[in-house]
Design brief:
The protein is 63% helix and 8% strand. It is mainly α. It has a single domain, classed as Four Helix Bundle (Hemerythrin (Met), subunit A), CATH 1.20.120.450. Strands 1-2 form a two-stranded antiparallel ribbon. A hairpin with a 4-residue loop joins strand 1 and strand 2 (73-76).
Length: 104
């Protein structure tokens, strides 16, 4: 959700500084204990929206950026797209490894 919001901020503001968040703390909140189907449905629909935005972008729009305080620099939407593509594969690898280790 934060990735989509960051994309939209970069497209609608001039190099906005985004607000980082404490991911580990968010993971401890009650909604994280809901059935996995809730999260899978959310991610599927979120990705539909995010992909629609990215598919509509022109090359100049992919060069729009936001500033991430923890990185100390502006990050382009082209970078973000590449980063989240890797990030998704990284999560799938973690899940696949866990399934194999636990023999699910």
């Amino acid at each position: 959700m934060n990735g989509l919001i960051r994309t939209k901020l970069a497209l609608t503001e001039d190099q906005p500084t985004i607000k980082p968040y404490a991911e580990a703390e968010w993971a401890r909140l009650a909604d994280m204990r809901l059935p996995i189907d809730v999260s899978l449905t959310l991610v599927d629909n979120l990705h539909l929206r995010w992909a629609a935005v990215f598919r509509s972008l022109t090359p100049p729009q992919l060069q729009r950026a936001y500033v991430h305080p923890e990185h100390g620099r502006a990050l382009t939407l082209a970078w973000q797209l590449q980063h989240y593509a890797w990030h998704g594969r990284h999560h799938v690898a973690h899940i696949t490894s866990l399934r194999q280790r636990e023999r699910w």
